[in-house]
Amino acid sequence: MKVAVIGAGATGLVSAYLLAKAGHDVTILEASTIPGGLLSTFDAGDGARLEYYYHHFFTHDAEINWLLKELGLADQVSFLPTTMGMLRNGEIHDFNGVSDLLKFSAIPMVDRLRFAASSAMLVYAKGYAEAEDVSSLHWFNKWAGKAATESIWRPMLEIKFGESASRVPLAWMAGRLRQRARSRDGSQEKLGYLRGSLQILVDRLVSEIKSLGVKIQLGVPTKRFLFDEDGAVVGVETTAGAFKADRVLATVPTPILAEWLKSDAPQYAKSLDRIKYIAATCTVLSLDKKLSPVYWLNVADPDYDFGGVIEQTNLVPSSNYGGQHLVYLSRYHEWNHPMASMSDETLIERQSTQLERLFKTEVKKHTKKSWVFRAKYAAPKVEIGFHRDIPDFKSPIPNLYVAAMPHVYPDERSVNNSIRVASQVTSEMGVDTSYVPSHMSLAAKYGRAA
Ligand SMILES: Cc1cc2nc3c(=O)[nH]c(=O)nc-3n(C[C@H](O)[C@H](O)[C@H](O)COP(=O)(O)OP(=O)(O)OC[C@H]3O[C@@H](n4cnc5c(N)ncnc54)[C@H](O)[C@@H]3O)c2cc1C
Fold this sequence. Notes:
Layout: E1 2-6, H1 10-21, E2 25-29, E3 41-43, E4 49-51, E5 57-58, H2 62-70, E6 77-81, E7 84-88, E8 91-94, H3 98-102, H4 109-124, H5 136-143, H6 146-161, H7 170-181, E9 184-185, E10 188-194, H8 199-211, E11 215-217, E12 222-227, E13 233-238, E14 241-244, E15 247-250, H9 254-261, H10 266-272, E16 277-287, E17 296-299, E18 308-311, E19 325-333, H11 338-341, H12 344-359, H13 363-366, E20 367-380, H14 386-389, E21 400-402, H15 415-428, H16 442-446
Parallel strand pairs: 1-2, 1-15, 2-11, 7-17, 15-21
Antiparallel strand pairs: 3-4, 5-10, 6-10, 7-8, 9-10, 12-13, 13-14, 16-19, 16-20, 17-18, 18-19
Bound molecules: flavin-adenine dinucleotide.
Flavin-adenine dinucleotide binds next to helix 1, strand 16, strand 20 and helix 15.
């Protein structure tokens, strides 16, 4: 079978790997001049690669651990202890476990206890992963109480989903909490990081699939599909010309797919277009000193142009980057938000001033280099009813298959879950993927998809 895979992100690369292993003739058509999609990296100095967007994975992520082993990279993974903080009322609170929670003075003690008990319910009780039509904030209000909801949960959800925060389904929230809570060794959370960055994984996947005969065409954006007279897809038209195929697997964000189909399959395009995405901007600063001892600081405060300060070198030693201290300033936003169009210089100036206020230190003086990365399609916006909008892997158009970030729902989108989706979609296409660990995701294990 001749297959065109559109997109060389995690989903496209792993799908191509599984299809080629099963003996199919695969070509990847990628718009960018580099493979990797959201896993792309840059040279942070002296050849040290760093992801555009912070990336870690969890100890229990079965699929990525399987893939790393399969590709001979398992010994390059480090599972590292991590720390979390939370800014509330201008003060940074440690937020790593029960003892920190008991000291979290931003809310009264009774609310701290309700917060802990309700979080435990979501993590350990069966059934919440099926709570599709319950709003997380509504549920938290009832079980965690108003103080914890307004001081912790609403700001946390607003960091990620902005105005849609009140419509995030409990099913997603339960999956997210389970993901974090289960990546613990006793009371210590540990996160996985590939030494040398995810570029190692992308490079190994590319060389592996090439040796299996996969052709990769880079810098070749797809423009639309080609159809036969019966309405079946028979290939794609790219900027480099037509490419014929027996099956086409689209792994691009679903709004792009909707755009391609709006005149040939308007009904289907309309249903795809119901899924909206949130954008993200990540500024990376290289400093000659650390800002704090914390890896991940939640900044749920509208006075700041970032929702998270993620000190990469508090997870991975700065010696891996020639001694520099690397910090991500991350912010999710709508694509029409001023963040998306603001010049990099203005953004860095504003954010550095805010960091100086937050950490009471001369950030500008200590910044040696900076970069800004923006992703229009950073994550699907999960809202009540989202599960009904997820398209089937096998589209209603003959020969066209679809696999993208919405398919990981109710789990959080991640590299691990993209590998799972690649396995699921290629299985729909007739490939035996029984050797890929499956149904081990948290949502699958504890509810819905079991
Ligand atoms: C800020 C941020 C932080 C994240 N943190 C983590 C983390 O800590 N851990 C984790 O596991 N995951 C994390 N992720 C998520 C992870 O990166 C994604 O889940 C995963 O990379 C999605 O892969 P994908 O292939 O589905 O999509 P993408 O990577 O978006 O791939 C889609 C591909 O399609 C291509 N394309 C688009 N248009 C066309 C066209 N017209 N023609 C051809 N090709 C086209 C794109 O260039 C891209 O290469 C993060 C993502 C972001 C944005």
